[in-house]
Please model this.
Amino acid sequence: MSFAKILPLLLAAAPLALAQPALAQTPAGPAPGITTQLPRGAAPSHYAITVTPDAPNLKFGGKVTIDLTVTQPMPALVLNAADLVIGDVRLTPAKGKPIKGSARINADAQTVSFDFGKPVQPGSYKLDISYAGVINTQANGLFALDYTDNQGKAKRALFTQFEAPDARRFVPSFDEPSYKATFDLTAIVPAGELAVSNMPVRTTKDLGGGKTQVTFGTSPKMSSYLLFFGLGELERATKMAGATEVGVITGKGNTGKAQLALDASAAILPWYNDYFGVPFPLPKLDNVAGPGQSQFFSAMENWGAIFTFERALLVDPRFTSEGTKRTIYSIVAHEMAHQWFGDLVTMAWWDDLWLNEGFASWMATKVTDKLQPSWEMLLTRVGGRERAMALDALATTHPVVQKIQTVDQVNQAFDDITYEKGEAVITMLEGYAGEDVWRSGIRSYMKAHAYGNTVTDDLWKAVEGAGAAGLVSIAHDFTTKPGIPLVKVDSAQCRGGNTVLQLSQGEFSRDQKGKAPLSWNVPVKARTIGGQEQRLILKGQGQMTLPGCGAYVINAGQTGYYRSLYPQENVRALAKGFTRLASIDQTGLLADNFQLGLGGYQPMGLALDLIDAVPATASPAVLAEVPDYLTSAYTMLESDKAAQAKVAAYASGKLTPVLASIGYDAKAGEGPQVPVLRSALVSALGSMGDAAVVGEARRRFAALGENPAALDGPLRNVWLRIIAENADAASWDRLRAMANGAKTDLEKSTLFALLGAAKDEALANKALDLALTDEPGKTTSAAIISQVGGEHPMLAVDYVLAHRQQYEAMIDVSARSQAIARLGGGSADPAMVTKLDAYATQYLTPESRKVVDRSISAIKTRIETRARLKPELVAWFGRK
Model:
């Protein structure tokens, strides 16, 4: 699953075909205290499902026959079911007559118990169940997305979203990842509509009366959450990638907008086949685009039928930015990596979710860098590391491998520790093992566990077995312990042309510096500028000798998951020698030192001096990082307009010459990173109220009256955001009219969401009221409220609490325990702490309030940070 980057910045200021086994696998027993797992003793091997959707009435009927094996006497058969009405139930032994059963639903546990009058004895059975369910309007179970087609007609399409625990909303099932089985899916659908699932269509039959029966091929053995069904007035475009047909499925008339995704799929699949050493085992791989959006995810890795929201898949030349195109490519790569890491080999339980997500994130960056080298994708790993560390620096963090006990905890596990720390740790471990050894270990792991389930240690043992001696102990430290190592240079001396470093280890924290630090085996890579890299496994204290004297970097290549604390004189030397550093080290040093300043480990002025040292001639990819740091400083001073004006003046002086040199509009022959830099510059200067940039936005907005294409291009949405942020009543109303007149649902939803970005509080209130109407669309309203929360968190939280049931109907069930914490998490108001805590106490269980507690910690830390840093920020920018 591709995790939507919708969590607010938590701390003030971070920028930032094999033979398949014939026998059903019996899952391991539940861990102590686990309340969400089913009783052991029965396991499925095959499901035959027939579903009849009634899209107009948002309901469906279903029948399922489950082949199962019972290994011990069972008082009843317990399966997962949610929001289902159970009809007839029959159990047929391999040699015997059907036995009629009764069903008892436990809605809180999301289970159904089938009683057959006496215990079910060990043996093989067929369990037949008829049932009915609801079609949701948010992305849980079988859900409907309403949209307007290219001819302006209202349409409805159906899709499924089952990760993590929502296949049970579609079919009574053993809805846990370790219960793998094969699936046959048949659907009775309106004639003329396209039905899609994991496998190609095997047969179709005209039933008369405008109905068609579609039966798909038998799936490989897989977990229930990977089953997929889609239906609607859709069309498909395809290409061949070796023996596999890759395709994109969109609403009619839109496959051309998915060409980037189709081409990416065709290029990535052969590379993955080679890397994993296991060819993709299904005959086809589709990427299915759905209109609308979710507040929880962007895409889902259903085996052979990836689902992606249109905004994360389609390219519209009128407004799609270069950054969005790269995100689309990366999401395609992420979900395709899951076809092996997650689908072919699946974690046994959600404790090891990171095995799916962290690896897919790492693999997406790797393949994109290999196939699109001009994008310099490895630089983005610094940003991912920083997003993870923003959570990991708080007491409310959790280890990469975490204990999951409830449905809410499963949903809340999809966070930046799982994704971004997962990727960062894998990056570090690959660097330790070496690319060839790492890949050899991955190939062994894939072959050993294909169509099965694993735990994290299975991966570490495979890589160490391939030749990475000592990897297991390092990997255990970074996946079973929370937090961030702090590698400190206690002294540095030049001796005989070498630099001798004395290192010690601590722990970087934003809110508990006084606690006893944890300890890790930290693989340190260091070098002087221009010198040869040296390595050390640091635990406690250690010494390194680096060839050459002068400024040095102790996280060379930025592959390590740790903070680097230098003597101040080395930071100053790095600033002077900044242009001699590799781009990845430039990017990493900017991030590391800014966070060390925020955390009070060194003066913030050191980080600002480093930012100041970035020349206008630096790599565009590095220059594109600078605006975010200045925007962060500006935001930290939001209570002091005069101080903010000094930051804005400095930003204008540093950034405007760069913007002038590249211009507002693309030029022929400009470098591949220039469009990304342009977007970053215009966005930052516009957000700080730069007169020239805001004036240009207004000029272009006004020109729409005579030329509807005046804003078209990759910066269209950037210009419109500047207009929205600085809107008055007239421009806000004009944006609303543009949203209602938009030609595509993708453009419509984007424009409606922008209405929530207004700095004017009256307009923000107007946007909140609009969100509760049907005008924006069922999946867009929550996005408007999220935008309001970015600028006016208290306003948004108060509004949502006053309309809580209406708001919860706008968002996925999986996001409900997190949504309000996300809305308020960017606040720096002490009153928000009280409000969030009261909400969690009233509405959430102790197990489901993790995201609320994280937001509370972040708010408290933000308040402390801003108060502490304000004098230093004012003084530094006052000198410039």
